[in-house]
């Protein structure tokens, strides 16, 4: 499993040392301040992983800090840079990639969505994206999708698993399929 990465954007000035101490107390992480109010948190190992939802709750309940947090497993610098460029447009909360897609479409962030679609396709590969779209077109029926793609069912399952591992989006579940369908419109 890949290391987790989070991007945290603070809506106001924060006490960097306090946040750093808290993060280091509960997990082995690397912290990098890229912009005055944006912090990248990367796990050094998965043994004592940082619960980013717990971090978000702590920031709100103990520090009263308004923030946006993006959570990933696959570390892709182009995707991170793309999100950091648009981070100020997102409401406070914790987002995974499916949430980012749904929020972006609902806010009609067309340029961002186009770039996001391109990045996801580059991350997983065009064949995997085509497989995901055909799977959804087949109404999440694995056998039917495999027939439509002229591939073995296990190959289809491998590609869907590959997509899920890279993006953390499970297209066999409604929320994941909905997010990818919105991305493909």
Write the layout of secondary structure elements.
Elements: E1 5-10, H1 16-26, E2 29-35, E3 38-43, H2 52-61, E4 67-72, H3 77-86, E5 93-95, H4 97-106, H5 110-124, H6 126-137, H7 142-149, H8 153-167, H9 174-184
Parallel strand pairs: 4-5
Antiparallel strand pairs: 1-3, 1-4, 2-3
Helix pairs in contact: 3-5, 4-9, 5-6, 6-7, 6-8, 7-8
Describe, in plain words, how this protein is organized in 3D:
It is a single chain. The chain has about 180 residues and is of the alpha+beta class. The model has no long low-confidence stretch (mean pLDDT about 85). The protein is built from nine helices and five strands; from the N terminus they run βαββαβαβαααααα. The chain has two domains: about 5-95, Alpha-Beta Plaits; about 120-185, Orthogonal Bundle (Arc Repressor Mutant, subunit A), CATH 1.10.10. The two termini are about 30 Å apart. The radius of gyration is 18 Å and the shape is elongated. β4 (about 65-70), α3 and β5 (about 95) form a beta-alpha-beta unit. Strands 2-3-1-4-5 form a five-stranded mixed β-sheet, sandwiched between helices.
């Amino acid at each position: 499993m890949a290391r987790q990465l989070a991007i945290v954007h603070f809506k106001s000035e924060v006490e960097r040392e306090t946040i750093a101490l808290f993060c280091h107390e509960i997990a082995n992480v690397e912290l990098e301040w890229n912009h005055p109010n944006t912090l990248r948190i990367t796990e050094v190992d998965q043994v004592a992983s940082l619960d980013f939802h717990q971090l978000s709750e702590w920031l709100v309940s103990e520090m009263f800090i308004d923030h946006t947090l993006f959570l990933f497993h696959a570390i892709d610098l182009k995707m991170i840079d793309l999100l950091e460029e648009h981070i100020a447009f997102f409401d406070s909360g914790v987002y995974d990639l499916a949430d980012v897609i749904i929020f972006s479409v609902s806010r009609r962030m067309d340029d961002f969505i186009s770039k996001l679609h391109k990045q996801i396709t580059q991350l997983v590969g065009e064949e995997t994206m085509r497989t995901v779209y055909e799977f959804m077109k087949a109404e999440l029926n694995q056998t039917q999708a495999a027939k439509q793609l002229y591939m073995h069912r296990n190959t289809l399952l491998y590609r869907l698993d590959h997509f899920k591992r890279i993006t953390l989006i499970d297209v066999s579940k409604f929320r994941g399929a909905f997010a990818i369908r919105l991305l493909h419109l």
